[in-house]
Amino acid sequence: MWTTKTFLTKTKRGNVLKIVREHYLRDDLLCGSAACNFCPHKDDELVLEANPESLCGLFDSNHYLILDTNVVLHQIDVIEEDALKNVIILQTVLEEVKHQNTAIFQRLLEVIGNKKRKFFSFVNEHHKDTYVERNPGEKQNDRNDRAIRKAASWYASHLSIKNIDGQFPQIVLLTDDEKNRQLAHDEGILTCTVSDYIKNVNGYPGLSDKLSKNVIPESCSKDALYPAHLTPTQIHAGIRNGKLHQGTFHASRDNYLEGNATISGCEKSILLQGHIGINRAIDGDIVAIEILPQEEWSKPSDIVLEDKTEDPGDFLEEESQLLTISKADDDITPTGKVVGIIRRKWRQYCGILLPSKFPGATRHLFTPAEKRIPRVRIETRQSDILASQRILVALDSWPRNSRYPLGHFVRSLGPIGDKDAENEVILLEHDVPHARFSEAVLACLPPDNWTIPEEELARRVDLRATCVCSVDPPGCTDIDDALHARRAAAGYEVGVHIADVTHFVRPHSALDREAAARATTVYLVDKRIDMVPELLSSNLCSLRGGEERLAFSCIWILDENAHVLSTKFHKSVIKSRAAMTYEEAQMAIDETSRNDEIATSLRLLNKLAKKLKQRRLDNGALLLASPEIRFQVDSETHEPLDVQAKRIVDTNSMVEEFMLLANVSVAERIAADYPQSALLRRHPAPPPAHFNAFLKAASRQGFELDVSTNKSFSKSLNEAVIPERPFFNTLLRIMATRCMQQAVYFSSGSKTQEEFYHYGLACPIYTHFTSPIRRYADVVVHRLLAGSVGADATHAALLDTRAAQALCDNLNYRHRHAQLAARASVALNTHILFKNREEVESAVVLAVKRNALQVLIPKYGLEGPLYLPSDKFTYNEEENVQICNDIVFKTFDELTVRLTLDSSNLQHRKLVFQLVTPFIPGVSYVQQTKDDQMEVENVEIKTDEKKRKDLPETKNKKKKKSKT
Fold first, then answer.
1. Per 3-state DSSP, what percentage of the chain is helix, strand, and coil (rounded to 5)?
2. d(CA 70, CA 93)
3. Which residue, 146, 213, 356, 525, is the most exposed by fewest CB within 10 angstroms?
4. When comparing pLDDT for 689 and 451, which is higher?
5. Packing angle of the helix pair 650-673, 776-789 (nearest 10 deg)
6. What topology is assigned to 2-210 in CATH?
7. Of 375, 521, 427, which is closest to residue 907 (Cα–Cα)?
8. SS3 call for 216
9. How many C-beta neighbours within 10 Å does residue 116 have?
């Protein structure tokens, strides 16, 4: 049988459109219960047990659970626990959850898919006995609640059919909606709140810790600390009339009372300060902002400020002194306040528990590992156990009368300081997908002993006889690229050969979807989180020496001055002669006695690369720098043994130049053939305001840098040299890097041709083609190029501009978080390395803050704050210097620091930089010489002797000796 469903929707012009659809109902849908004597089940269709054990003390009889939508949305952490079994998930609930939160929907599907959990999905919306029509004037939510109650009633009566002895499972409806519970009770349905049910479950200690805390309505003003948020209707009206603005809130890492929001149409971000200005926004939230009158605008605080370690209670401290709000110069920033939350971007957060000082207390503070996230109040009876663990906590709500948000415990990650637990924290905190590849993904892989089929060889250009080699960092196993160069009739033939990952990763497969979701390989110091399974990343796709591999080749003919005369692209098969490190390749070039084919090819590549690089620099490309470091890691324990700044040789630049040339060549081709959907990469020019502090610091050193164009900036950087300070120019480039904006992926149809420009590389168009093993962007570019040259079919998804932009958004997000995860891994291993170690090294001042100097140690590439006591130093805001008597600290100054690790705060272990020279009494650390140590040891020996002489036993012995 069938019925009709009617929908009312509004068109873009505001007209109301009535949609009527046929809705089919059936009477042969199975209930899934082994206790049923009516439905014609097959064995594999019996999900629910015939005699489900009751673990809840509130219900003596065996029972099945039915959950309403809000229970699933708010209590998914409880639902994922094994304590809940034999649960019926209705189609009504599934559809609502999918509509409201896709992440929770996916988690629910995983639970349903776990056969041990006994979760049964019942299609109540298509069963003739459980489907309910929406009544005139009835809200959709009320209709859905009625549908859930109808299904619960049907199950209760259905299971009783043909059960003569009356022994069949009862139905218990879990809902926190008081009205729904009362209606269910009136209809004879057993019902219970989630909290009451979970707190009475036996055999699962700690389960109640995972209960989500109820949200207190904004209208509740009792003991309110924060202003009430505007309603969605008020926010929408305010944005429409221009009084409010929508933006994404970004909390400061250095000052917990400060943040900013980026809004469209405003060149500068909007500054938000203080508890009231931030008004319970959490990093990543999409918020409604009211911009303050211009006379109330301020500038970002230049003080480093962390929240206090102890729970201050529910009150907000005086903020004026903490923020040091200043309006002294031209850096005044548009300032606003958060008046509403449009969408929360909360996730699960890693951190540690700060147990209450009151014995037996159940309310405790949780401190997140991410400094931009406020501390969270949670309830647990396991504080004694959890205090030594890294734990995961989810946020539930942030009432107006609570200084901190409320949350609940999710799970433990492992002991604090344990390497595996700390790596897990890094991956979770940076939202890095790192679960094992699913069976569906692994099923897409070829066999381990796969070899290139003859028919595939016939379709490709055979380059196995060409002298191709790869040049990579030491220990690299995911080799994406290889090169060759040889003389040609019209100049030089140069080839870049890139692993043909798309031969194995086919569109819309489970492997493709997983690679798209991960978007990039993430490199930690001691491990790698692959974008594709290891069989591909380190074997079949990796261009290893001496093995035949599938490739996508870009071949140029270059003249003597490295100008491109012609370009061609084709799928190929290659056999690399050697997989070399940068140092090995450099040795082959420099060793004059070597004249083999590999050395000759490398020298030719190196010669042409230098000409390519010079032409790029002449065009305005920027040579920037960053303090990159490399760890020496123990091969067995994976513990860091030493750290040093990365050494760069000519072959680094050689490989880079040809990868850049390949990326530019491919970008030009795909943009020409796919003008609306080519995946490209752009680097916007930094706003002039980004350079203010940098230019002031350079000016104090006597250099007036011209940043009007990238070409003039590059020229200025080249000329800013202090002969007696060789590291100065590198330092200048490191600081220049921090003025830049992030390069981003975009779809060609979403930007104008002028916006394609890549500022850092000074090229009008650019993409990523050369690393498809570790970047999904390159996989998409390979597919576009293959379609362009006729090497593969062009599938429809490649031409979908909306899908292309959504893909770019995910790529940018994952790329950024992969970078942050890599930096966090470096910090973790640095802390491990310096655990029982101290160093005194030369350092350079990168920035001057109100209460600290940001310093860099060139030897290690490490940086951090060197805090200055306010009673000794005076901060000159106008000159941006710190003064102590006749000593003045300014940017670029050289000094000596002592480097140690402070482990007193288990959550945030940190490197401590302590001033050594210039020497300031009461501030600088005094190094002990060997003579000083010997003198101290002698003093200690004499003191010990004196103590022994003063002991009663010794005195008595002396007296006895004198008598005899």
1. 35, 25, 40
2. 9
3. 356
4. 451
5. 50
6. Rossmann fold (3.40.50)
7. 375
8. coil
9. 7
- Dihedral sign from CA coordinates of 748, 752, 753, 758: negative
How many degrees, rounded to 5, is the angle at CA 300 between CA 297 and CA 304? 150
Q: What is the CATH number of domain 834-927?
A: 2.40.50.140
Which 8-state DSSP code applies to residue 799? G
Q: Give the chain's largest Cα–Cα span.
A: 122
* Residue from 113, 209, 807 nearest 512 by CA: 807
Per-residue model confidence as pLDDT tens digits over 615-634:
999 998 988 777 777 777 77
Q: Which residues, listed in sequence order, are joined to residue 245 by a DSSP beta bridge?
A: 289
Instruction: Report pTM.
Output: 0.81
- Residue 620, amino acid: G
Query: Tell me, what amino acid is at 98?
Result: K
* Tokens (6 digits) for 422: 């700390």
Q: Please give the structure tokens belonging to residue 129.
A: 């006995």
CA distance 744 to 810: 11
Q: Determine the residue type at 602.
A: L
Q: What are the pLDDT digits (tens) for 147-197?
A: 999 999 999 999 988 675 667 899 999 999 999 999 999 999 999 999 999
In angstroms, the CA 338 to CA 227 distance is 10
- Evaluated on CA atoms 22, 27, 32, 33, the torsion sign reads positive
The pair phi, psi for residue 439, each rounded to 5°, is: -60, -35
Distance CA 546, CA 807 (A): 36
Q: For residue 884, give the nearest of 929, 847, 915 by alpha carbon.
A: 915
| Per-residue pLDDT at 228 exceeds 50 | yes
Tell me how long the chain is.
964
Backbone phi, psi, residue 782, to 5°: -60, -40
Question: Angle, to 10 degrees, between the axis of helix 801-833 and the axis of helix 510-518?
Answer: 60
- Minimum mean pLDDT range among 306-315, 318-327, 617-626: 318-327
d(C-alpha 9, C-alpha 35), whole Å? 43
pLDDT at residue 961, as a whole number:
38
CA distance linking residue 480 with residue 466, whole number of Å: 18
pLDDT at 941: 44
Residue 481 structure tokens: 């690229």
Q: What is the mean pLDDT of the chain?
A: 87
Task: Say which range, 286-290, 782-786, 928-932, has the weakest mean pLDDT.
Answer: 928-932
- Which element (helix H / strand E) includes 642? strand 640-645
Average pLDDT rounded to a whole number, residues 81-105: 93
**Residue 43: what are its φ and ψ, rounded to 5°?**
-60, -40
Ranges of each domain in the chain: 2-210, 439-666, 834-927, 932-963
SS3 for 340? strand
CB-based contacts of 855, cutoff 8 Å, min separation 6: 843, 844, 845, 846, 863, 864, 865, 866, 895, 897, 913
Residue type, 447: P
User: Which has the closest alpha carbon to 899: 917, 913, 915, 920?
Assistant: 913
Query: What do you get for the CA distance between the two ends of the chain, in Å?
Result: 122
Cα(174)–Cα(170) distance, integer angstroms = 13
pLDDT in tens, 695-714: 888 888 889 999 999 899 99
